[in-house]
Design brief:
The complex is a heterodimer. By secondary structure, chain A is of the alpha/beta class. Chain A has eleven helices and ten strands. In chain A, the strands form three sheets. Chain A has a four-stranded mixed sheet with strand order 3-2-1-4. In chain A, strands 9-7-8-10 form a four-stranded mixed sheet. In chain A, strands 5-6 form a two-stranded parallel sheet. In chain A, helix 7 crosses helix 8. Chain B is mostly helical. Helices cover 80% and strands 0% of the residues of chain B. In chain B, helix 5 crosses helix 8, helix 7 packs across helix 9 and helix 8 packs across helix 9. The longest helix of chain B is centred in the first third of the chain and has 23 residues. Chain B is globular and about 60 Å long. The termini of chain B are far apart. The chains are: A alpha/beta, B mainly alpha.
């Protein structure tokens, strides 16, 4: 006599695992597989990943380790290739050389609305210049969201290329970085900034500088501020202080609303 | 595992491309196990599995967020999988040469144990093939894949009581077959 239970036990034992290749094949057929490679970034080797829409990740090798570690932490399936595709390679070289994203496409489609606005604003900060977190918050129309801006930048999937290292504390000090403060400093120094001098200025309470010939005040690293002659340079501790002395905000670095 | 499946529709509606690989990971073993019984060999089963998820992705691409959030994912994926299996069976009937390879005995097995398991797989596929189509579908989905009756009803568009009686009759038929084999 064969018991029904015996039959159902046999049937349950017919279950098999899908072949390992299945997931990868499906993701390839649906265009969800990223490719990645190793490139030389401004401060050392880095993994860079992309898909059909653009760059999806930039991770310094010293922050992650081996390729398999990179694959594990990458949010999507990723397979290694020798070099970036032709459609990206020139734009990528240019972006790394100049510190500007230029025409390099980035894929931020998996990112929420607020974070995308933060990252897109961050891209506008030119190389060799820094802005406080509060500047981004104000520029994207959420002046109260300074903390959220910090979080959004801390989760930047494409650091270096989206230059979150150019965003610093409101008191002017360099502050934290997802890959550690030393890397943030070395990225800024690579762009010609003197991080020691920036920290000293911050400690002295200098947030803004102005020119007594133009009557305009700027963030200290604004390209217009850098042109001010020492003899005409005026330092301010706050926007209010600058405005009280009759200065107006620079229209390029926009240090006030 | 089940909590992952519960959270998936919501995740898919927010981050389709990020959550889709988890949908495949969560459901691929079930789809493949069922497809092994509904097709003639492992290659066909793998093709069916891939095709099912590719179609699922194309469908989700065209759905709005509310529709994705309301999906009963497993039975929905099985509706697609059963369709893919049916279409494949039709193609094989029309072009019998494509069905020449039948790995009832798998020649690529690495160990004796594995080979025995594969012979077992082939023997059961043969027994299941002698059930009526609806009975085989219900038995395989319930006892091999592990789908609850309600989800089988949803994915086949039949009532839950019909599914229950199909499973019962299918098992009775299998018992008769086994007793005949032993005689």
């Amino acid at each position: 006599m064969t018991h029904t239970e015996t039959i159902t036990t046999h049937l349950a034992a017919l279950r098999r695992s899908a072949p390992e290749s299945t997931l990868h094949a499906v993701l390839r057929r649906t265009d969800l597989t990223d490719e990645y490679t190793l490139i030389e970034g401004p401060t050392g080797p880095a993994y860079i990943a992309w898909n059909g829409r653009g760059i999806t990740a930039f991770v310094p090798v010293e922050a992650v380790g081996s390729p398999s570690d990179f694959e594990t932490r990458h949010p999507r399936d990723a397979s290694f290739v020798e070099a970036p595709p032709d459609r990206l390679v020139n734009h990528l070289d240019h972006a790394i050389e100049t510190g500007r994203l230029g025409r390099l496409p980035v894929d931020l489609s998996a990112i929420g609305e607020f974070q995308r606005r933060v990252l897109e604003k961050c891209v506008e900060i030119p190389p060799g210049e820094i802005r406080p977190y509060g500047w981004i918050a104000r520029e994207i129309g959420s002046p109260g969201a300074v903390r959220a801006v910090g979080t959004a930048l801390g989760r930047n999937p494409i650091p270096v290329l989206i230059p979150c290292h150019r965003v610093v504390r409101t008191d002017g000090r360099i502050g934290n970085y997802a890959y550690g403060s030393p890397m943030k400093r070395s990225l800024l120094e690579h762009e010609g900034l003197d991080t020691e001098a920036i920290e000293t200025q911050a400690r002295l309470g200098v947030r803004l500088v102005g020119s007594d010939t133009t009557g305009i005040y700027c963030y200290p690293t604004c390209r217009h501020a850098k042109r001010i002659n020492d003899a005409h340079l005026v330092e301010f501790r706050s926007e209010t202080a600058a405005v009280e002395e009759g200065y107006r905000a620079c229209k390029v670095c926009r240090p006030a609303a | 595992m089940t909590t992952t499946l519960d959270q998936l529709p919501n995740r898919l509606s927010v981050d389709r491309d990020g959550a889709f690989p988890d949908l495949v990971r969560t459901l691929q073993d079930g789809v493949y196990s069922g497809a092994l019984q509904f097709t003639r060999n492992r290659q066909d089963a793998e093709d069916v599995t891939q095709e099912t998820f590719v179609r699922a992705y194309r469908a989700i691409e065209s759905y709005d967020k509310d529709r994705i959030r309301d999906l009963q994912l497993r039975s929905w994926v099985w509706t697609i999988a059963l369709n893919v299996c049916r279409n494949r069976a039709r193609t094989v009937d029309r072009h019998p040469e494509t069905a020449l390879v039948d790995d009832r005995v798998d020649r690529t097995a690495d160990t004796a144990g594995e080979a025995a398991a594969n012979i077992d797989l082939g023997a059961w596929r043969l027994r299941l093939a002698s059930l009526t189509g609806p009975q085989r579908t219900a038995v395989v989905l319930h006892h091999v894949v592990g789908l609850p009756y309600g989800e089988i009803a949803e994915s086949t568009g039949r009532s839950e009581s019909t599914i229950r009686s199909d499973v019962r009759r299918g098992l009775a038929r299998l018992r008769t077959l086994l007793e005949e084999e032993m005689r």
